[in-house]
Amino acid sequence: MNKATFAIIGAGGIAKSQHLPNLSRAAHIHLKTVCDINKDAASAAQKLYDIPKMTTNHREVLSDPEVQAVVIATKEDAQAKLTIEALQAGKHVYVEKPLAVTTEECEAVVAAQEKSGLFAVVGFNRRMAPAYLEAKSVIDADGGPTNIHYRITDDFFFRDNGTKPPDFRMIHEVCHIFDILRWFTDSDVESVYCVEARRNDVIITLRFKSGCVASITDSGHATYDYPKERIDIIGDYGSVSVEEFTELRTFGYPDYDPVYRFEGHSHPGREYAPHYMLGLGGAEALYNIRRGLWKLSRQVHTDGPSGEVVADAELAYYKKHHYINMPAINYMVNKGWLEAVDHLAECILSGKTPQTACAEDGLKANQICHAALKSQNTGEVVRMADFT
Ligand SMILES: NC(=O)c1ccc[n+]([C@@H]2O[C@H](COP(=O)([O-])OP(=O)(O)OC[C@H]3O[C@@H](n4cnc5c(N)ncnc54)[C@H](O)[C@@H]3O)[C@@H](O)[C@H]2O)c1
Questions:
Q1: Looking at residue 269, what is its pLDDT?
Q2: Hey, which of 19, 34, 36, 53 would you mutate to test ligand 1's pocket, going by the most ligand atoms within 8 Å of its Cβ?
């Protein structure tokens, strides 16, 4: 099969948990080079995934005429700059979210993408999650969404321990949700209102130009056993809900089954049991796996050698007992990461325009983040017209 040649810049957390294993098995991708300023990280990835080349200098990647596309997964402080450099060097880009923290940087990427005529895809991978693609097709056949509730929660605040900037969750996490709601509604946001109960514990309401309204419950104060994400969508007649990418339920649609279940995401050569359990047991399996992991984490809390609070308890548990070598459940549900990078490769090979989020979508999500933060700080409804 014809394959597009890719390189990856940044071999840290998301690269190890998603992009490296995905790029090395995607049907339409040949992964030629891994680059990281940290030589050990680049070497380890090269060895584990048998990647032909490794380097610590991204310019070596960008000057390689064989490389057609780069995945950029560094951090928000470098992603916009590297994307612009890559586009100027004639490479298509898949850049992780957030495209940048400031709107100006996002605008610069959009300008560079337009000038280059190349693809610049942003890592809003949820658009390719199988459960969401199915949910969208069901609700679109019913006139599209009129009312959506999205819940995104984390035990992040506990791990974060208050050290991250107050706007961190909005810019880094809720940006995903603004994007996916724009995708589900096929519409732009007209106005935003955000109220805060305490830090990292907010409700955001959105009015879309389509007439749809949406609310987002965003909290960093949940426990690990609580599923991280859920969407409920009301259509013209019926409705759908998706529990953490695992179980889609339809209501009021005689032509659809009431329940669809989705297998989890897996890594090559490491097929974790929960991957299959999610497909078989759906939401019930998800609750049980999460509950089990949470219980293990509590055990580490109380049985820890010096009795101190272990912030990243369940992770510490797996590091200590790495016989399981299992990723967090967060990376075990299928949020469309593999599908999103492979889709870019298919588009490069066929010349078709990617259906995933592009630089302009990265910019729009960023603008909504800043509008929501403004509303949170002023207590007022913010109209997007004032931001664009
Ligand atoms: N889409 C998702 O589901 C998802 C999930 C997690 C993280 N992310 C995003 O992915 C990005 C990376 O996050 P992470 O957790 O992997 O970060 P990380 O800090 O774990 O990894 C970043 C890596 O990039 C390397 N790096 C930094 N600057 C570089 C440069 N100029 N050239 C080459 N290498 C460089 C670092 O050495 C590090 O190894 C962030 O923007 C984050 O928000 C997305």
A1: 65
A2: 36
